[in-house]
Amino acid sequence: MEKLYTAVVTAKGGRDGHIKSDDGVIDMDLKAPKAMGGEDGFPNPELLFAGAWGSCYLGALGSVGKRDGVDVKEATAEVHVSFNQESETSYQLSAQLDVHIPGVDLEKAQKMADAAHKGCPYSKATKGNIQVVVKAV
Which domain holds residue 59? Predict the structure, then answer.
């Protein structure tokens, strides 16, 4: 495996902390979401993960579209990342990716969505680790 890029981000303070990338592109405070006792108006790990996964997933969908001769430039991936409590001290993520490919019927869109999920690095990283639903909409 050839390493093409490595992101380096330093986190401090946990959910109510700060993250900063070594290149300075990311430099922000984090807060737990209001639903978890935090406050509105700040990013949290689940928002960042959902955004990163959605962007990466659309890259994989672009590869599938190219293979299938389907233009997916206007496609969207709405990624829902949930933070779930399993027990008093154990937590687990779950996710749903709602994939919309304009001009493509739902059956074909679902096949393309599933193929992109198989190729997406973020999807591969979560495979077998968390519950994930990929749904063409």
Answer: 45-136
Identify whether residues 25 and 56 lie together within a single domain: no
Residue 64 shares a structural domain with residue 33:
no
Contact 44, 33 (CB under 8 A): yes
Could you tell me if 70 and 121 lie in one domain? yes
Distance CA 50, CA 74 (A): 19
pTM: 0.94
Of 93, 102, 107, 103, the residue nearest 135 (C-alpha): 107
How many domains are contained in the chain?
Answer: 2
Q: Which long-range contacts (CB under 8 A, 24 or more apart) does 34-39 make?
A: 36/83
pLDDT truncated to tens, each residue of the chain (137 aa)?
999 999 999 999 999 999 999 999 999 999 999 999 998 999 999 999 999 999 999 999 999 999 999 999 999 999 999 999 999 999 999 999 999 999 999 999 999 999 999 999 999 999 999 999 999 99
